[in-house]
Amino acid sequence: MRTLDDTDRQILRLLLEDARRPYSDIADNVGLSAPAVSDRVERLREIGVIRRFTLDVNRSLLREGSPMLVELDVRPAAAESVAKALTALDRVDHVFRTADARVVFRAPIRDGDVTALLDGVVDLEDIRDIDANLVVDDEWTPGLGEAELALSCVECGNTVTSEGESARFDDELYHFCCDSCLSNFEARYERLQSGV
């Protein structure tokens, strides 16, 4: 699978609506058999389009602080580490890192004290400014649109098109833009394996 077709997109949309939807229900919606849907979902997982099946918790029904959208102006060298540290926090819902060294996240904050949440998690010296706003309503609706598959060749970095190749080495699937890149990778892989 090096391209997405309309059936793949429809399967993804149905799973975005409800990740626990039975394959038989999806099959009825897309005109395939349940095993065919299962095969397509497995291929989408294998290439990384589907990373995981998750749960959307309505935090407004839980008492753990006020929901806040927080924007941090971070030293550029620390933006990635700050974003990773926040992502690791159980109470943080979403983390975004922008090109201009800002980290935006959503989390319930007790007593509106963002600094207390950050202290001990990140180096406060890396934070230049904090802008926090109370969230009164939110809706997370991930969409798909008419997305196309954008695999990169592991050999040269070019985009893998429908003419590309895929191959498995040690149970890991790799994608190549052309037969030449596959051959180069395979030769190097075999040299490394024989040298071990």
Automatic annotation (TrEMBL):
The lineage of its organism: Archaea, Methanobacteriati, Methanobacteriota, Stenosarchaea group, Halobacteria. CDD domains: HTH_ARSR (cd00090). PROSITE patterns: HTH_ASNC_1 (PS00519), HTH_ASNC_2 (PS50956). Signal peptide: none annotated. GO terms for molecular function: sequence-specific DNA binding. Residues 4-67 form the HTH asnC-type domain. InterPro entries: ArsR-like_HTH, AsnC-type_HTH_dom, HTH-Siroheme_Decarb, TRASH_dom, TRASH_HVO_1752, Tscrpt_reg_AsnC-like, Tscrpt_reg_HTH_AsnC-type_CS, WH-like_DNA-bd_sf. SUPFAM superfamilies: Winged helix' DNA-binding domain (SSF46785). Pfam families: HTH_AsnC-type (PF13404), TRASH_HVO_1752_C (PF24273). Gene3D superfamilies: Winged helix-like DNA-binding domain superfamily/Winged helix DNA-binding domain. This is ArsR family transcriptional regulator. The keyword Transcription regulation applies. Keywords: DNA-binding, Transcription, Transcription regulation.
